[in-house]
Amino acid sequence: MLWVGLRPQRRVGGLGYWIVPETRGSGLATAAVRLAVPWALEALDLQRLEAWVEPDNLPSQRVLRSAGFHEEGRLRSFLTVAGRPSDALVFSVIRPRH
Ligand SMILES: CC(C)(COP(=O)(O)OP(=O)(O)OC[C@H]1O[C@@H](n2cnc3c(N)ncnc32)[C@H](O)[C@@H]1OP(=O)(O)O)[C@@H](O)C(=O)NCCC(=O)NCCS
């Protein structure tokens, strides 16, 4: 499953994805995110697509990097995971500025 939500900021989208555990490790997330990025930027007319990832989620970080996302920084206690605060790494792709 892959989804793009709209952030409150104009023309900014947020990407999320989830692969069923039985099929993880076979390149599905990488393929899906690579396909989704150009579609989301164009079809939704985004100037920025971002993703928030837990620091220990290394597979997800590899997915994003291989789809052209850049790591921008760390938001402390930004997420709540299983009821506890968790940091988030921020990744993004942007459209070339004219
Ligand atoms: C993160 C997730 C989407 C990855 O899906 P996937 O289909 O297994 O990913 P891929 O098979 O495309 O592999 C992605 C990369 O992670 C690497 N990887 C897999 N398991 C790993 C592990 N335990 N540690 C480090 N890297 C790992 C793969 O080798 C691959 O890297 P490569 O392209 O350099 O070889 C999947 O694990 C998932 O659904 N997790 C739960 C939900 C989630 O975390 N969503 C993302 C929230 S930001």
UniProtKB/TrEMBL annotation:
The name of this protein is N-acetyltransferase domain-containing protein
Q: What is the lineage of its organism?
A: Bacteria, Bacillati, Actinomycetota, Actinomycetes, Micrococcales
All copies of domain N-acetyltransferase, residue ranges: 1-96
Q: Give the Gene Ontology MF terms in alphabetical order.
A: protein N-terminal-serine acetyltransferase activity; protein-N-terminal-alanine acetyltransferase activity
PROSITE patterns per the UniProt record, alphabetical: GNAT
Q: What SUPFAM superfamilies does the annotation carry?
A: Acyl-CoA N-acyltransferases (Nat) (SSF55729)
What does the entry list under GO cellular component? cytoplasm
In which domain of life is the source organism classified? Bacteria
